[in-house]
Amino acid sequence: MGRMTRSTALKVAAALSVVVAIIGIVAFDLPNLVLGAEESRDPFAIVLGSFTSDVVALVAAYGAWRLQKWGAVLLIAVNSFWIIQAVGSLLFDAGAGAMAFASVMLVHHVAVISLCLWRERVVSAV
Amino acid sequence: MRSERAARRLYQLLYPFLLIWYAFVVAGLVAVVTTWPQRPIGSLDEIPWWSHAIAFAVVAATWAPVSAHLDRGVHQLAFGQRDNAYEVAGHVSRQLLPSVAAALAGTMSLPHVEIEAGGRVVTSYGKAPEGAPITTIPLVYQNHAVGTLRVSARRRRDRLSATDVRLLEDLARQVAITLHAAGLSAAVQQSREQLVTAREEERRRIRRDLHDGLAPTLASLGLRLGVLQRAIATDPAAATEMAAELRTDVRQATADIRRLVYELRPPMLDEFGLADALRNLRPVDGLSRTVSAPDPMPALPAAVEVALYRIAAEALHNAARHAGATRCTVEVAAGAGDVVLTVTDDGRGLPVDYLAGVGHRSMRERSTELGGTLDIGAGPSGGTRVVARFPR
Description:
CATH class of the largest domain in chain B: Alpha Beta
Number of helices of chain A: 4
Strand content of chain B: 15-25%
Largest interface: A-B, 27 and 41 residues
Shape of chain B: flat
Protein name (chain B): histidine kinase
Radius of gyration of chain A: 16 Å
Transmembrane segments (chain B): 12-37
Number of strands of chain B: 9
Catalytic activity (chain B): ATP + protein L-histidine = ADP + protein N-phospho-L-histidine
Enzyme class (chain B): transferase
CATH topology of the largest domain in chain B: Heat Shock Protein 90
Helix content of chain A: over 70%
Oligomer: heterodimer
Pfam family, one (chain B): HATPase_c
Order of helices and strands of chain B: HHHEEEEHHHHEHEEHEE
């Protein structure tokens, strides 16, 4: 595949996931959690699921940054879940902003999974 | 063993999961496109059935490349790079010497360790304190000096103790093995590159010969055959003359093809075998030749046969042209593990200030590239003796 090393690919994937997880926590999870189950703008189960996935993504990103196999696997799992969310958002959400955000997220999640499955090649010996 | 099992299980779980997930994602994205005019939709029931049919077709069409890509990616994630053993070996050997230098420096608290081989610094760790004495320890592997280990003392004007040096000498043996292994790895890599280069050069030569020589000749023949066809009815005399010219050209083209085939592999080797091919080598002016070979000749690798044939031809050519020899003996002897070609002539022998020319270098290259050796020296009763030895 490309020239990027596997460790670089995993670190990029980890960094991307951290950015998205923090955006998710700050922009979506925390405001809804603060409002509580009764007054949450979105179904609270979804809020809880999203918050859990964001936390798991942060843990996974830590593992991936340390080049741990479990970190990469967990990042794949979380981003697979997020892709389903993004596709659902593309199908069910109204508004250009939501569409654009979901599209960007879709590309992000596919990129992260690809980076986690990055196939490193050592071109020359010694 | 446990990690092997865990890796296998991870592969077995993750690969099908990603394949199924891929199918779902494609179905979702196709649904987004097909329901675009009605979006946002209220429920999944609003997705038309043909959207799933399109998704199925897309998944089917992309299945082979996507599954192969996922397979490779998941395999590497689960098992590391063990499916690319040669690449891993190269990577390990590249990392090995710096790691060894760092380990030496770390375990013995040395500020500077340097490993040198072939007159160049292979790896270096740390920086020697100013004024600190440097101790040099030769790296020897199987009685061959493979490099030098240089370490600096820990402080200025403070030499390493005798115990330190003894320990370093013991460790130097391990470093020498590592250095030797790294050298072998580099040699293998270089050899692979040479093989690829040689193959490409050969292809280029054949292409050039076909393109510049044979192709225009055949094209010209085709055109002139057309002219001949028209001339037969109108001008039979000119047609006859042209047919004669064409015959000459066809002979030339045939000779070109023969030359090309000969350069690929001497046809005589296939027609007569090595011993008779050596006997039938193109006669060299004024040189009588005696060929002795085992009968029957044991089966030899094709490349060794060609090398023996070419070396013998070059040696005979040199004997006649440079040594002024009148008689030459060509002897092939096959042992249990090797085959030896000896060409001895009665010529002037090698001059004292002899320098290897293109022919000798070519013979040496032919022998070394097949793991053989070549000795060129004086014959037992004067003249020159060329001995090529190849493993069987």
